[in-house]
């Protein structure tokens, strides 16, 4: 057992180093990209906005103003100075002010949207994964049943349709034609967020359609994936042998078929959780949901460096830790993978 | 070659429901797209018709809030989208075939480098990159977007082709051809191409589904040239100008119906062809 612990710590250490390396590289790239886009300097944009509003600015006052703005935004100095300052502030938990909605700090903006996104996406991702995987596993075994064929047909019908169109169709049918659900927002305007039953009811009602769209699409995909994986397993020798041994059907299904297909499915789930942030933009725009996706999109459109970087940072950290989590979990599901890294 | 294609098509048509359904939907769609060439209106113009009229005899699909006849607008959009999808598909097929054939045939270090390149492309997050690219080049026309998407759309298929070439390389006829002094290019173009083409065709359709989906997603965010009617931009304008709130249902209904028909038929075609090429990949159940 001591040996196992030693290997585990070494394995964990190696994975952690990789994880932090990924975060470091990601942060550096996201630092560079918005600064390399020409014509998107926020100080210039602010000055131009003033000029467009019709304010008369004497040329000699424009330059000091630009410098003052650059300093305010934390953009003075060379790129390298900015880079080091960025890391220093980042480690203190300060992501700087948002440029577009100055002087609100980026951290405030993100923490305002993050719960909605995480709540919606984490919930739907897990629910659709569990249902899809279970049904897919059972379906691979009981392929001839009517419900399997119906469900398969439904999954296949939904699959090719672009997510945006699917979500839009749901929105039109349920929010405009039937008027069962509201067409946007996260809760009723005018209700103060609290743990009262009216607020919770309102949140559920507003979140239902976006959640439904994500669950249907996700469940179909996981179902088909698991079915393909598991139906491959059902023809493997050890399953056929288990049949001849007259092992109980439910045991074969659970411990032989499903368990073998699990590592691939689990990896898929973790990778999906990592893409939560880029995957959410369309959902939030269609359903007008006030999450990170909408925030990211407006930030990109307004060249709001700090906000873009803050959101990307969240996303990079999420991806890096999701991968780390899978790496740590996989050996529990799949005994062929060991913490030692080699065949032990 | 052409007779072979004909026999395969008729056989698939008779046997496979999915193939039949997809052709029955797809052929009218293509005809509808071709009609765009005979349109009395200019594709980009607006306010040539009365606004927000429901479907009638003179405007079969009605008109939208920008004074455009939806029948002709959909026809233009379908044509532009199909052309766009084909551009992306053909260009990325060329890259995939070159990379796949070289990697599979050469093997060794070349193979490893090319496969590493493929894998790096596979893990790139395309969606954020495209948004950034779009910001970099404030004006990107549809053809440029097609080139950019093609640049990201080849790696999976290059891997598929490589696998195929790897197995062809081990067959007897390759050895016979090499020993009888056949030129490498002749071997690849005369012998291998026939074996690769079915995969190329199937992946063309899959690639079109991918790029058309991307076009719609980007359009919805307002990131494609919005004055050119495509499946995406038509939907964009309907949403942008609040068609649902104003109760102009036909403005949003027709784009959605056409998109669903197009994607479903292409997908069915893809599935049935893949099944035909590689029956062993079929999902087996007990």
Supply the helix-strand structural class of chain B.
mainly alpha
Largest sheet of chain A: none
Order of helices and strands of chain A: HHHHHHHHHHHHH
Number of strands of chain B: 0
Outline type of chain B: globular
Average pLDDT metric of chain A? 80
CATH architecture title of the domain at 114-291 in chain A: Orthogonal Bundle
Helix content, binned percent of chain B: over 70%
Classification by helices and strands of chain A: mainly alpha
Q: Count the E strands of chain A.
A: 0
The percent range for helix content of chain A is over 70%
Mean pLDDT of chain B: 85
CATH class of the domain at 114-291 in chain A: Mainly Alpha
Distance between the termini of chain A: 14 Å
Task: Report the total helices of chain A.
Answer: 13
How many angstroms separate the termini of chain B?
38 Å
Name the helix and strand elements of chain B from N-terminus to C-terminus, one letter apiece: HHHHHHHHHHHH
CA-based gyration radius of chain A: 25 Å
Unreliable stretches of chain A: none
The CATH homologous superfamily name of the domain at 114-291 in chain A equals MetI-like
Low-pLDDT residue intervals, each spanning 5 or more residues of chain B: none
Can you tag this structure with a few keywords?
heterodimer, A: 344 residues, mainly alpha, MetI-like fold, 13 helices, B: 286 residues, 12 helices, 74% helix
Structure, briefly:
Chain A is mostly helical and 344 residues long. Helix content of chain A is 75%, strand content 0%. Chain A has a domain at 114-291: MetI-like (MetI-like fold, Orthogonal Bundle).
């Amino acid at each position: 057992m001591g040996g196992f612990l030693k290997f585990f710590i070494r394995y964990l250490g190696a994975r952690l180093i990789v994880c932090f390396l990924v975060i470091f590289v990601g942060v550096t790239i996201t630092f560079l990209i918005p600064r390399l886009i020409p014509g998107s300097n926020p100080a210039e944009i602010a000055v131009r906005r003033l000029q467009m509003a019709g304010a008369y600015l004497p040329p000699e006052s424009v330059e000091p103003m630009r410098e003052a703005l650059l300093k305010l935004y934390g953009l003075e100095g060379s790129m390298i100075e900015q880079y080091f300052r960025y890391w220093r502030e980042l480690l203190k938990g300060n992501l700087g002010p948002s440029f577009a909605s100055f002087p609100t700090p980026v951290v405030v903006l993100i923490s305002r949207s993050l719960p909605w996104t995480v709540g919606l996406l984490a919930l739907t991702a897990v629910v659709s994964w569990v249902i899809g995987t279970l049904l897919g596993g059972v379906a691979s075994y009981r392929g001839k049943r009517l419900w399997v064929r119906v469900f398969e047909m439904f999954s296949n019908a939904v699959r090719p349709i672009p997510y945006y169109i699917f979500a839009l169709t749901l929105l039109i049918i349920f929010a405009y034609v039937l008027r069962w659900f509201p067409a946007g927002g996260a809760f009723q305007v005018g209700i103060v967020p609290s743990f009262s039953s009216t607020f919770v009811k309102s949140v559920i009602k507003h979140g239902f359609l976006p959640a439904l769209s994500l669950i249907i699409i996700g469940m179909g995909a996981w179902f088909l994936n698991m079915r393909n994986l598991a139906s491959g397993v059902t023809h493997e020798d050890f399953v056929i042998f288990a049949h001849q041994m007259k092992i109980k059907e439910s045991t074969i299904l659970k411990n032989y078929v499903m368990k073998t297909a699990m590592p691939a499915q689990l990896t898929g789930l973790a990778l999906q959780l990592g893409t939560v942030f880029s995957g959410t933009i369309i959902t939030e725009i269609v359903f007008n949901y006030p999450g990170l996706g909408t925030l990211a999109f407006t930030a990109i459109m307004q060249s709001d460096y700090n906000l873009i970087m803050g959101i990307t940072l969240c996303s990079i950290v999420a991806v890096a830790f999701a991968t780390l989590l899978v790496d740590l979990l996989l050996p529990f599901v799949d005994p062929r993978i060991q913490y030692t890294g080699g065949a032990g | 070659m052409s007779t072979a294609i004909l026999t395969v098509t008729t056989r698939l048509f008779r046997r496979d429901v999915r193939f039949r359904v997809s052709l029955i939907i797809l052929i009218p769609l293509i005809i509808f797209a071709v009609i765009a060439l005979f349109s009395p209106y200019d594709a980009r113009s607006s306010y040539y018709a009365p606004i927000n009229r429901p479907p009638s005899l003179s405007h079969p699909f009605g008109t939208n809030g920008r004074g455009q006849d939806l029948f002709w607008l959909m026809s233009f959009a379908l044509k532009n989208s199909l052309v766009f999808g084909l551009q992306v598909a053909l260009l990325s097929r060329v890259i995939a075939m070159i990379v796949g054939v070289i990697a599979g045939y050469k093997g060794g270090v070349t193979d490893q480098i090319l496969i590493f390149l493929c894998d790096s492309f596979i893990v790139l997050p395309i969606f954020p990159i495209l948004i950034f690219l779009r910001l970099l080049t404030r004006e990107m026309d549809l053809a440029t977007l097609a080139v950019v998407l093609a640049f990201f759309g080849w790696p999976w298929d290059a891997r598929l082709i490589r696998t195929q070439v790897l197995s062809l390389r081990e067959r007897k006829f390759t050895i016979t051809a090499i020993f009888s002094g056949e030129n490498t290019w002749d071997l690849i173009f005369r012998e291998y191409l026939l074996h690769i083409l079915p995969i190329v065709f199937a992946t063309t359709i899959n690639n079109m589904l991918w790029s058309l989906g991307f076009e719609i997603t980007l359009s919805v965010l307002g990131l494609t040239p919005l004055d050119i009617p495509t499946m995406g931009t038509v939907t964009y304008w309907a949403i942008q100008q609040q068609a649902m709130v104003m109760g102009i249902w036909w403005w949003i209904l027709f784009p959605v119906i056409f998109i669903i028909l197009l994607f479903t038929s292409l997908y069915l075609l893809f599935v049935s062809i893949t099944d035909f090429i590689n029956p062993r990949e079929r999902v087996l159940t007990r």
